[in-house]
Automatic annotation (TrEMBL):
The keyword Ubl conjugation does not apply. It comes from Nothocercus julius. Its main location: mitochondrion. One of its GO terms (molecular function) is protein-disulfide reductase activity. This is MIA40 protein. Signal peptide: none annotated. The gene is Chchd4. GO terms for biological process: mitochondrial respiratory chain complex assembly; protein import into mitochondrial intermembrane space.
Length: 138
């Protein structure tokens, strides 16, 4: 028994062994570039954001989808010299929303970040010491 779970619009499909043994009746159709539902990448030909692009990883849907869309739209259309610098409030709202759903939007714990930073610093220091010793011994 096999099942699939799609994020976003949660859809579970159960398939039996018999389902797998039966030849598929699916028909492949040539891509139609004028099909509005055809995946066009992140930016559509008219310059709009394609919220259905798989590259967004489903961020445009879910409990913080509206906050994500607001922040991403602001950044995309920003004309500030430092692109997106006018979008701080939207990104803050998105982050606050995501913090309410840690199971859906996992974030590194501050302790984990500090531990990772100290390990990186330690590794860089050891590498620098080894390089210095190798240089001095030649």
């Amino acid at each position: 028994l096999v099942f699939f779970l799609m994020t976003g619009k949660d859809r579970i499909i159960f398939a039996t062994k018999e389902d797998h043994e039966t030849p598929s009746s699916a028909e492949l159709v040539a891509d139609d570039p004028d099909d509005p539902y055809e995946e066009q990448g992140l930016i559509l030909p008219n310059g709009d954001i394609n919220w259905n692009c798989p590259c967004l990883g489903g961020m445009a849907s879910g409990p913080c989808g509206e906050q994500f869309k607001s922040a991403f739209s602001c950044f995309h259309y920003s004309t500030e010299e430092i692109k997106g610098s006018d979008c701080v409030d939207q990104f803050r709202a998105m982050q606050e929303c995501m913090q309410k759903y840690p199971d859906l939007y996992p974030q590194e714990d501050e302790e984990e970040e500090k531990e990772k930073s100290s390990k990186d610093l330690e590794a860089n220091t050891v590498e620098a010491s080894i390089a210095k010793e190798e240089k001095g011994s030649s």
